[in-house]
Amino acid sequence: MDKSNPFTHYYAQLLHQGNMLQDHVRTGAYQRAFLSNGVDFKGKVVLDVGTGTGILAFFALQAGAKRVYGIEASDAAEIAQALADANGYTRDQLVIIKGKVEEIPMIPEKVDIIISEPIGFLLVHERMLESYAAARNRFLKPGGLMMPTTGSIILAPVTDDVLYKEQLSKIAFWSNDNFYGINLTPTLPAAQNEYFSQPIVGYFPQSSIISPHRTCHTIDFSVVQPEELHKFDVQFKFKIDQTAILHAIGGWFDINFLGSAEHVQLSTAPDCPGTHWYQCRLLLKDPIAVNKGQTVSGTMSFTANDKFSYFIDLTAKLDGTDVSCTNRINLHDQAYHYLYAGVS
Fold first, then answer.
1. Domain layout of the chain by residue ranges
2. Which residues contact 232 (CB under 8 A, 6 or more apart)?
3. What distance in Å separates the CA atoms of residue 188 and residue 198, rounded to the nearest whole number?
4. CA 54, 203, 158: angle at the middle one, nearest 5?
5. Which residue in the list 48, 112, 117, 130 is annotated as catalytic?
6. How far apart are CA 89 and CA 67, in angstroms?
7. Radius of gyration (C-alpha) of the chain in whole angstroms
8. Which of 322, 283, 278 is nearest to 300 (CA)?
9. What does DSSP assign to residue 174?
10. 3 state DSSP class of 215
11. What is 152-336's CATH topology?
């Protein structure tokens, strides 16, 4: 891509934003959350963090907002302005500000509501939640509303022999001791670390989950501070309901819009309609054989990194035994897996 050409930037943003807009589950949930809570939006001043094409700002105006400030750091700000002009919104109704929410000067007024789509897969990838919280600290009136209001990381134990063997087959290449006369085997430990550190992003079937229990780690966007998102732990404990091999911890997220009139939830669970976020699986290097009735417990420790994502240190233990395993996941280094189709 020619980064010196502004039109190349513009069209790249257009393609990226178009892919997001076409996620009808995501886009429809946002519009429903705003329009069904018109009592919250009518006559109010709204801030849209990372406005992109401006679609959420337009939904806020549809819901009755008096004015929306749309902050956008990328060239998508030009797309938002073009769409606002073409759809008859004045520059007093939608005020586009190009820049980062942490760096722009104070806007002319405090706002009643902050809206955003600050979500990556497993909720926290891309680290936009920190900007969402920073915007609240800078611009929201006391008692103002965050939409979405809360988000939850959901975890469950997963068995998937096919996926595990696929990763092993990638590693096996490096066991070749005569590759055109070269011994590749010294790279085996690094190859194992690399392939098992990748989160596997894609749909997986509900039938691969081997426990009725779920771990739910909820973040309240109304109060969480940016620094609290730099490092946090999620503890889990699952009672297994079938004899199987535990290959991975599966993860997804829910976000909740807690308006005065209606509460709307957007879920990316395996038994819900598919979204562009999919679900993800965090593999164990050494799978654990489990029997029905046993419990598995452990911790996922999230540490923010400079790749706009997280390292996750995963520990899992078969309770009552000496069997355990650890793994470090690089959340920014995803492998995509499309073997299964999402629920439609």
1. 6-117, 152-336
2. 217, 301, 302
3. 16
4. 130
5. 117
6. 10
7. 22
8. 283
9. G
10. strand
11. Hnrnp arginine n-methyltransferase1 (2.70.160)
Neighbours of 303 (CB within 10 A): 14
State yes or no: is 78 an active-site residue.
no
Q: Which member of 40, 72, 112, 126 is catalytic?
A: 126
pLDDT in tens, the chain (344 residues): 444 455 455 555 555 566 678 899 999 999 999 999 999 999 999 999 999 999 999 999 999 999 999 999 998 999 999 999 999 999 999 999 999 999 999 899 999 999 999 999 999 999 999 999 999 999 999 999 999 999 999 999 999 999 999 999 999 999 999 999 999 999 999 999 999 999 999 999 999 999 999 999 999 999 999 999 999 999 999 999 999 999 999 999 999 999 999 999 999 999 999 999 999 999 999 999 999 999 999 999 999 999 999 999 999 999 999 999 999 999 999 999 987 777 76
| Residue 126 bears catalytic tag | yes
On whether the CB atoms of residues 127 and 304 are closer than 8 A, the answer is: yes
* CA nearest to 303, candidates 230, 225, 234, 217: 230
Q: Which two tokens stand for residue 322?
A: 């000496």
Find the largest Cα–Cα distance for the chain: 74
Which SS3 state, helix, strand or coil, does residue 157 take? strand
3-state secondary structure 235-271: EEEEECCCCEEEEEEEEEEEEEEECCCCEEEEECCCC
pLDDT of residue 207: 96
Which is the catalytic residue, given 220, 233, 276, 333? 276
Active-site position among 9, 16, 23, 213: 23
Tokens 């073997």 map to which residue? 339
Q: What is the pLDDT of residue 1?
A: 43
- Tell me, what's the pLDDT at 3? 47
d(CA 257, CA 90): 27
The CATH homologous superfamily to which domain 6-117 belongs is Vaccinia Virus protein VP39 (3.40.50.150)
11's tokens: 């069209």
Residue 104: how many CB atoms within 10 A of its CB? 16
Say if residues 279 and 340 touch (Cβ distance below 8 Å).
no
Report the C-alpha gap between 163 and 337 in whole angstroms. Answer: 9
